[in-house]
Amino acid sequence: MKTKRHSKILELISEKDIATQEDLLIYLRDCGFDVTQATVSRDIKELRLVKTMVSDGKYRYTPASSDNNADVSTKYAVFNQSAKSVDYANNMIVIKCYNGMANAACAVLDAMNHEGVVGTLAGDDTIFVLMRDERMAVALVENIRKLMG
Fold it and tell me: Which CATH number describes the domain made up of 75-148?
């Protein structure tokens, strides 16, 4: 069932401009999948979907692999426009984002492949990053602040 649902999600995002988890949830239910918001959120993470800007300036879900052809400034624009603040304590970083944008920003952050990142966890408006040590946390926070302008 999960494989069929994932295939349907990829089909839906290739055919429609789906910008929110709620929109995806509705489309999936219309296609006969009995899913919850938590399931849709996990599917988005497992499929490594990211929000990318389309020509009209709006965002939509796309597979991370299709984002590889995007120009770097566009790729990081999602992060830049999603993140509000960043801070750290010891080897832990917290990035505050606008509501609903943490998953997309986290996918971009993961794609940056920063040295020392043990793992990331995204909620609705917050990203938690566990770093190997405090020195690496400080370096990543500095890089993120540069990205945020």
Answer: 3.30.1360.40
- CATH architecture under which domain 2-72 falls: Orthogonal Bundle (1.10)
pLDDT in tens, 8-60: 898 898 888 898 999 999 999 999 999 999 999 988 888 888 887 776 777 88
- CA–CA separation, 6 vs 43, rounded Å? 7
Q: What DSSP letter does each residue of the chain carry, written as one string? A: -HHHHHHHHHHHHHHS---SHHHHHHHHHHTT----HHHHHHHHHHTTEEEEE-TTS-EEEEEGGGGGGS-HHHHHHHHHHHEEEEEEETTEEEEEE-TT-HHHHHHHHHHT--TTEEEEEE-SSEEEEEESSHHHHHHHHHHHHHHH-
